Amino acid sequence: MRKSNKRFILYGIIGIAIIAVAYWGFNFLKGSKLFSDTNSYYIYYDRIEGLNESSPVTVNGYKVGQVSEITFLPNDNCRLLIKIDIQNEFSLPDSTIARIVSMDLMGSKGIELIFGKKSTFHSPGDTLIGQVEQSLKDQVSVQMLPVKQKAEELMVEISKAIAVISYIFNDETRDNLEKSFASIKTTMSYLESSAYSLDTLLKKESGKISRILVNVEYLTLTLRDNSEQLSNIFDNLSTFSDTLVALEISKTIIEANKAIESFNKIMDKVNNGEGTIGKLVQDDKLAIQLEEAAENLRKLLFDIQYNPKKYVHFGLISIGRTVNVTDESELTPRDMKVVNRRREKNEKEAQKNYEKEQKKTEKQKPVVSSDGASLDGPVIFMIQIRSAATPIEKNSSELKGYTDVIEIKSDKFYKYYVYQHDNPQYTSYYLNLVKEDFADAFPVAYCEGKQLTYSEGITLIAQK
């Protein structure tokens, strides 16, 4: 053989090797294995969502094959026929579903095989059931559809509400609201002015109010101490009236007839609604208002008596004039002397009263509080307003301005009482008065240093 022929044979062998290597490299890039046996299956799809040839075919995420061919079928409703090659060691059960799914976040597509539960298997070349996974757009649309419907319904309701508000708040309504707010502002100004005037009046007249309360208290004590004499007086009056009834005096009868005639005329006017009394009889509104005013005044005077520091700071009476003191540094030397004399006098009177009370209670064992306050009487009733594990200052806001507060330590707690009294008839009134500031207040009783319940105190008084 000639040397030139050998050269051509060598060139042919090299060319065949190059073609074989190129074919093997092309199939390797496609993911095909040249030396492995595969089985082919077919699937029909209406759409393939970007599936390409050489796309992977997986089972539970494990690659078992790839798409080998995609054929467009224009005569079959433009469907697509997909051919997949599966390694022959994998057998596909009947009813296996080939679903096109997204393989990664970039949207690359592949086919996932979902095996059926049947015991029979597909033969190579069979047609599998094809499905397409919902796209992200479709999923979002399905999830957002109810939200969209709710939003549309909400917009309709908002439109209705806006229409109603626009109908209500027209120009006339806005003008009425502005006038109403202006009236409220004026009313609040009047109330503030009235409160200031009342506060000024209480400060100026505090001395007079204190004297009135002292006189009223003295009068009630006098009436109580002289009850027997008053009974005798009433008995004498009753006897005298019986004597007058027995007397037949014509002049008295004539005068009485005239008085009755005048009284009848007055009563006729009253029945006709004439005059102040007639209006009062015909219309009970004034009587109700007077009754309410009297009740409110009674409560105010009672609270001022027991808690004067809630309303005034300090007051004293000089000769021929009243001096109200809020800051002693503002007093003149003359007024300061008057204040000192008054204080000395008050201290002497207080000492005398204390000595009298001590003589009355020598034979009784008083209840003594933690600050040394004496509780007079064998059985004492009080209203409990607070209980605390630590002491409360007398000027603390927790006591709400009450000054005559009694502190008694019982076990590990400090208890605070007001309105000490020895007559249980007043307990209900005191309790109603205190409940306006302390809703949880309740009455208690003390006897010889021991706390009792209110009912036990009542029973003890009844036994005595």
Give a brief description.
The protein is an alpha+beta fold and 464 residues long.
What's the overall average pLDDT, rounded? 77
Main β-sheet, spatial strand arrangement = 1-4-3-2-6-5-7
Helical fraction: 40-55%
Ranges where pLDDT stays below 50 over 5 or more residues in a row are: 313-326, 363-376
Profile the largest sheet: 7 strands, mixed, barrel
Can you tell me the number of structural domains?
A: 5
Rg is 54 Å
- The proportion of strand residues reads 15-25%
Protein structure class: alpha+beta
**Shape type:** elongated
Descriptive notes:
- Helices cover 50% and strands 21% of the residues.
- The chain has helices spanning 3-30, 136-168, 171-204, 206-225, 227-246, 250-271, 275-282, 285-306, 333-360, 427-435, 454-463; strands at residues 38-45, 56-59, 62-73, 79-87, 97-102, 109-114, 127-132, 315-318, 321-324, 367-368, 374-375, 380-388, 406-410, 413-421, 442-447, 450-453.
- The strands form four sheets. The protein has a seven-stranded mixed beta barrel. The chain has a five-stranded antiparallel β-sheet with strand order 13-14-12-15-16, with helices on one face. A two-stranded antiparallel ribbon has the order 8-9.
- A hairpin with a 6-residue loop joins β5 (97-102) and β6.
- α6 (250-271) packs across α7 (275-282).
- The chain is elongated and about 180 Å long.
- The termini are far apart.
Topology overview:
Blueprint: H1 3-30, E1 38-45, E2 56-59, E3 62-73, E4 79-87, E5 97-102, E6 109-114, E7 127-132, H2 136-168, H3 171-204, H4 206-225, H5 227-246, H6 250-271, H7 275-282, H8 285-306, E8 315-318, E9 321-324, H9 333-360, E10 367-368, E11 374-375, E12 380-388, E13 406-410, E14 413-421, H10 427-435, E15 442-447, E16 450-453, H11 454-463
Helix pairs in contact: 6-7
